[in-house]
């Protein structure tokens, strides 16, 4: 009987020890399911690649987090976070006061200007007066949609799209007069064969920090303060050790961390 009890006790201790070293649950990193180059896009094999993927991988590695990229429809990405389908949003989401009513954010990890593009054969600028009477395309549930509705009140229509690519396609097809979005994302479109053929940059919109926010951060649930602290520590570490710059130089020839106003 003593032998049986001793064997049971050893097994129990081993089980407790195994639980102590059990692998932590993976951290599900939510990204918009649509391609958003050069930040997040699936490659030919379906693997997600891009600057933001490399960035969050580096943060997770620094903080020893087991992170898994989890694509989610953009207009449902905040509900996916609050209902725990994902744990972090790393999808070029701008930090805004409106969003902070529902979720929290890490420190800023990049910030780039907001641009207007339009047909090459039309000359106009990015100011509200330039867009009077025009149909302006924006992606739904973005700071650009909010900005356009606030500032371009004399536009013929502010047309919202589920994806940025759909807005770009309608601009190329002549169904829009202009598109507003992050300057880097629009720059990638203008470099494409389709973008080169149809469109050009009209300029950067005027700043509005209340709408556009101070930059892009990682979205987290308000109660997940430990995770937020780890992400912030990871951002700080890769900024300090050169990894952030190493990643950025693969994609950009300027400092993506700075910049006046910004993204989604």
From TrEMBL:
<dbReference type="Pfam" id="PF00497">
    <property type="entry name" value="SBP_bac_3"/>
</dbReference>
<feature type="signal peptide">
    <location>
        <begin position="1"/>
        <end position="24"/>
    </location>
</feature>
<dbReference type="InterPro" id="IPR001638">
    <property type="entry name" value="Solute-binding_3/MltF_N"/>
</dbReference>
<keyword id="KW-0732">Signal</keyword>
<feature type="domain" description="Solute-binding protein family 3/N-terminal">
    <location>
        <begin position="28"/>
        <end position="255"/>
    </location>
</feature>
<protein>
    <submittedName>
        <fullName>Amino acid ABC transporter</fullName>
    </submittedName>
</protein>
């Amino acid at each position: 009987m003593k032998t049986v009890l001793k064997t049971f006790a050893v097994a129990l201790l081993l089980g407790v020890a195994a639980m102590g070293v059990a692998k932590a649950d993976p951290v599900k990193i939510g990204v918009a399911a649509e391609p958003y180059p050069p930040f997040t896009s699936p490659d030919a094999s379906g693997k997600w690649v891009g600057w933001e993927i490399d960035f969050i991988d580096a943060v997770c590695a620094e903080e020893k987090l087991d992170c898994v990229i989890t694509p989610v429809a953009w207009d449902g990405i905040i509900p996916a976070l609050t209902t725990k389908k994902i744990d972090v949003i790393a999808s070029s989401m701008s930090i805004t006061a409106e969003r902070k009513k529902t979720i929290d954010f890490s420190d800023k990890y990049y910030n780039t200007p907001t641009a207007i593009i339009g047909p090459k054969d039309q000359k106009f600028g990015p100011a509200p007066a330039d867009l009077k009477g025009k149909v302006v395309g924006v992606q739904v549930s973005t700071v650009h949609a909010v900005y356009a509705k606030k500032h371009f009140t004399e536009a013929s229509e502010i047309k919202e799209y589920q994806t940025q690519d759909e807005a770009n396609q309608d601009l190329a097809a002549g169904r829009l007069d202009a598109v507003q979005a992050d300057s880097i994302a629009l720059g990638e479109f203008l470099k494409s064969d389709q973008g080169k053929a149809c469109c050009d940059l009209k300029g950067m919109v005027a700043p509005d920090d209340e709408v556009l926010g101070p930059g892009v951060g990682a979205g987290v649930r308000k109660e997940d303060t430990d995770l937020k602290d780890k992400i912030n520590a990871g951002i700080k570490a890769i900024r300090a050790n050169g990894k952030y710059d190493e990643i950025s130089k693969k994609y950009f020839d300027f400092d993506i961390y700075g910049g006046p106003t910004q993204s989604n």
